[in-house]
Amino acid sequence: MRPLRAGHLLLLVLLLVACHDTDDNDYWGEQEKANTNVNGNDASLEPSLARLEFPKVKGGTSVILIHTTNDQFGINYSVEWDTEKKAQRWSAYQMNRSTLKQSTTRYRSDTNQYPNDPQLPDNQYLSQDCFWNSGYDHGHICPSADRLYSAEANYQTFFLTNMQPQYPKFNASDNSPWYRLEGTVRSWANATTTEMLYVVKGGTIEDDQILATKVKGEMRVPKYFFVALLLKNAEGYKAIGFWMEHKSTFLTQEPLKNFATNIRDLEARTGIDFFCNLPDNTENHVETLPVENVCRAWGL
User: Fold this and answer.
1) Which residues lie across from 197 on neighbouring strands?
2) Which of 36, 56, 101, 220 has the maximal Cβ count within 10 Å?
3) How far is C-alpha 112 from the geometric centre of its chain's CA atoms?
4) How many CB atoms lie within 10 A of CB 144?
5) What are phi and psi of 229, to 5 degrees?
């Protein structure tokens, strides 16, 4: 699939589902009544943009890269890639018990461990050598461990467009909250009650939210990383955000709840409109609850 240009999107009005009126102690946003959606993506050019994991696409110099596989899942994950900054803004995908069933092993290659994304022309790639000897890992945003249901799906997670530079102890240390959060996200997706977990992850790439020096004058190193989650089960929807400073070391097993936030606060920090394809009442309900309620609903 060719990259989808994200500009010139129109506002949509969709007859979808809504939550009932509740107080803040009733967390779940239900999907029982018809309701409008005034901030959803325009899916007239690409129906996938209406999927619930998609944030509001930015447009301008950004393109949407939708990676598909020849299996029952179809769409593996999607990326918003800024062709001017040569950096990804987010990866978005779906998870549940089916997608976590392992039928392959982690992709390995001695010659092309991190292939260029075949959907991008050469002049829009980040240079291959930016990561090497930089002090930063190739940080999967859609992790390899989230996509072991097929060799094709796992291979695609190694595209450079799914990578952000991360400190090794942020990316792979047991003390790192990012590392622990990725495992926790898998446990939430794998729960028997979870119908679907919608995931958006990324690192900040705007000029005021990167570390001071671009690696080799080109690669932007995020100052912060974020995760936005929307979970659907029989009760309805719930949502949670995480915001983490990108540090070279973590000295303690800091609780994940210390990094948790509601989605509306995460949107203010990132400038991204998450879960815009939800009907408005449901979106407003699950995104604006106090963080104490959010943490309690997610068991943090």
Assistant:
1) 95, 231
2) 220
3) 25
4) 17
5) -125, 140
Q: At what angle do helices 263-270 and 280-288 cross, to 10 degrees?
A: 90
CB distance 178 to 169 below 8 Å: no
With vertex at residue 137, the alpha carbon angle to CA 132 and CA 141, rounded to the nearest 5 degrees, is 125
162: left (phi over 0), alpha (psi -120 to 50) or beta: alpha
Per-residue HEC secondary structure of 220-241 comes to CCECEEEEEEEEEECCEEEEEE
pLDDT per residue as tens digits for the range 118-170: 999 888 888 888 999 999 999 999 999 999 999 999 999 999 999 999 999 99
How far lies 16's CA from each of 19, 35, 53, 170, in Å? 11, 5, 16, 40
Q: Where are the alpha helices (DSSP H) in the chain?
A: 151-156, 168-171, 177-189, 263-270, 280-288, 291-297
Report the predicted TM-score, pTM, of the whole model to 2 decimal places: 0.89
Instruction: Specify the residue for token string 């080799």.
Output: 216
Q: Are the CB atoms for 232 and 195 separated by under 8 Å?
A: yes
CA distance 284 to 18: 10
Quick check: helix, strand or coil at residue 163? strand
- Tens of pLDDT, residue by residue over 203-232, are 999 999 999 899 999 999 999 999 999 999
Contact 25, 42 (CB under 8 A): no
From 233, 159, 188, select the one nearest 95 (Cα to Cα). 188
The residue assigned the tokens 């899942």 is: 73
Whole-angstrom distance, CA of residue 263 vs CA of residue 270: 10
